[in-house]
């Protein structure tokens, strides 16, 4: 009984080995089927033995030979397609032109402008650094110091007291003093005398102010010494068309305007730098300093 059991086990094991060997050979045959077909086709085995080659052998193409004749780009695509799952197959691209065809067919003349146009469009679409900075600056507002308005320079002012005259209906001349607000200057006496020579303004004229100082008279120089103001006038100061009343009036205007300053008590008149005794043909005395009491 033991011998029968051993015989059965041995025969079963041998059968299993035969089946396993057959499966291995079958797998190897299926894996090498392409190579076997290629060898049968290349050696013309069927043609030599049977006289004819079967259609499936005749139409068989070796993958290795096909890939060798394919361009490099198609080989890469074939390898990628074989390595990826069937659902994610890559689109096939047309094979590149042969070197002779590429040389015979000139490139279109518009290819370079198109490239430049595409490049310019890409540059326009790309955000410039200044635009990016401006956008970032608008997003993040940094509080800046509040700019305070610069203080305006305030000009110092003072009051100028000027002496004009008014002429009544009967022709009599009377003194008329006015006050003006002016900008302060370093030579107040010179400034006030020049304002007096310019005459009354429109508002003062409307109030009856007049001037008897001859037109065109200019102040050449002015100085104060021991309470006496030395005022040097141009030659126009010598001629007054009104007569004696005019000479007295112009002298009075100058003396009252100058003696408004505390440092001036009287005025010594000079004509073109010369000291004269009389003014005009009527002979009005100017040879000595004149004060307010002289009128």
Keywords:
alpha+beta; 3-stranded mixed sheet
Spatial extent as radius of gyration:
63 Å
Overall mean pLDDT: 77
The coarse overall form would be rod-shaped
Main sheet: which strands, in order across? 3-4-5
Helical coverage, percent range? 40-55%
Number of helices: 12
Structural class determined from secondary elements: alpha+beta
Taking the sheet with the most strands, its summary is:
3 strands, mixed
In total, the number of strands is 7
Report the uncertain regions: 98-114
Strand content bin: 15-25%
Describe this entry's structure for a reader.
- There is one protein chain.
- The protein has helices at 2-31, 33-43, 45-49, 55-58, 63-69, 72-83, 99-104, 111-125, 129-139, 188-198, 202-206, 244-258, and strands at residues 157-167, 173-183, 219-225, 228-233, 266-271, 278-279, 284-285.
- The longest helix is centred in the first third of the chain and has 30 residues, at 2-31.
- Helices cover 45% and strands 15% of the residues.
- Helix 10 (188-198) runs antiparallel to helix 12.
- It is built from twelve helices and seven strands.
- Residues 98-114 have low confidence and may be disordered.
- It has 295 residues and is of the alpha+beta class.
- Strands 3-4-5 form a three-stranded mixed β-sheet, with helices on one face. The chain has a two-stranded antiparallel sheet with strand order 1-2. A two-stranded antiparallel ribbon has the order 6-7.
């Amino acid at each position: 009984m033991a011998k029968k059991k051993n015989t059965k086990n041995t025969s079963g094991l041998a059968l299993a080995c035969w089946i396993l060997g057959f499966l291995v050979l079958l797998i190897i045959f299926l894996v090498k089927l392409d190579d076997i077909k290629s060898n049968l086709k290349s050696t013309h085995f069927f043609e030599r033995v049977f006289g004819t080659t079967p259609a499936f052998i005749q139409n068989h193409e070796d993958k290795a030979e096909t890939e060798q004749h394919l361009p490099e780009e198609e080989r890469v695509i074939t390898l990628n397609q074989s390595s990826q799952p069937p659902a994610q197959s890559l689109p096939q691209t047309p094979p590149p032109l042969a070197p002779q065809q590429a040389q015979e067919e000139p490139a279109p003349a518009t290819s370079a402008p198109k490239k430049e146009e595409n490049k310019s469009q890409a540059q326009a679409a790309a955000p410039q650094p200044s635009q990016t900075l401006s956008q970032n600056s608008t997003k993040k507002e940094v509080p800046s110091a509040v700019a305070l308005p610069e203080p305006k320079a305030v000009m110092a002012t003072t009051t100028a007291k000027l002496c004009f005259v008014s002429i009544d209906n009967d022709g009599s001349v009377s003194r008329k003093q006015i006050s003006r607000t002016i900008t302060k200057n370093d030579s107040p006496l010179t400034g006030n005398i020049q304002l007096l020579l310019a005459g009354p303004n429109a508002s003062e004229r409307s109030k009856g102010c007049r001037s008897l100082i001859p037109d065109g008279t200019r102040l050449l120089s002015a100085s104060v010494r021991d309470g006496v103001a030395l005022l040097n006038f141009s030659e126009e100061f010598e001629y007054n068309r009104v007569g004696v009343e005019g000479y007295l009036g112009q002298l009075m205007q100058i003396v009252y305007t100058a003696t408004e300053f505390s440092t001036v008590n009287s005025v010594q008149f000079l004509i073109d730098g010369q000291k004269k005794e009389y003014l005009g043909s009527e002979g009005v005395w100017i040879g000595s300093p004149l004060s307010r009491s002289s009128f």
